[in-house]
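My hope is that you will study the record closing this message with an eye to the fold:
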Amino acid sequence: MALEYQTRQFEVMLCSDNEPDSMYLEVTEIVEEKSRIVLEIRYFESDGSITFTAFEKDLPFELIEHFGLSARESLTPVAETVE
């Protein structure tokens, strides 16, 4: 998914790891056709914890806000209801 904040270009990718057993959203910033990871939110299935890591300073608040909400929706399991 491509995002633009304050004329800066970002991409979000949903990823998973086996070690540790986790899923994460990764945000990369695209600058002059090069990309670098700027944010990561990781959900650990073993204990249900979520961690946030920023690899860059001075990121747009709107990006962090959007990213946090997306991670909550995309990474945490949804309880199934049985009728």
User: Anything to note?
Assistant: Residues 2-75 form one domain. The chain has a mean pLDDT of 87. The first strand starts at residue 2 and ends at 5. The CA atoms of residues 72 and 78 lie 10 Å apart.
